[in-house]
Design a protein that fits this description.
89 residues; 0% helix; 5-stranded antiparallel sheet; mainly beta
Length: 89
């Protein structure tokens, strides 16, 4: 996680798939920022929690995508983006 604007109004998430899994949370003035990912074989599952009035810029193999407030799940298989915005658990 990397802040791109004051107060974490915009932040970047760039998973490092060489790690099997990772997670982090941070309480900001806007609310909780949370990121976790896990790699299982050729699949990478990324969960992102974006606080109200904030935007997460997610770096994916095929470019970047902005996510608004809420909980999001993104999935990649074999370096290819597969699904987005499935309910995060």
């Amino acid at each position: 996680m990397e802040p791109l604007a004051p107060g974490w109004a915009r932040f970047r998430v760039a998973p490092t798939p060489v790690l099997t899994s990772a997670s982090a949370t941070l309480d900001t003035v806007r609310g909780r920022v949370g990121v976790s990912w896990r790699r299982d074989g050729g699949t990478l599952v990324l969960d992102v929690e974006v606080p109200v009035n904030a935007v997460a810029e997610v770096v994916r193999p095929d470019g970047t995508r902005d996510l608004g407030s809420g909980r999001h799940r993104l999935t990649w298989r074999l370096g290819r983006y597969v699904t987005a915005d499935a309910p995060a658990r």
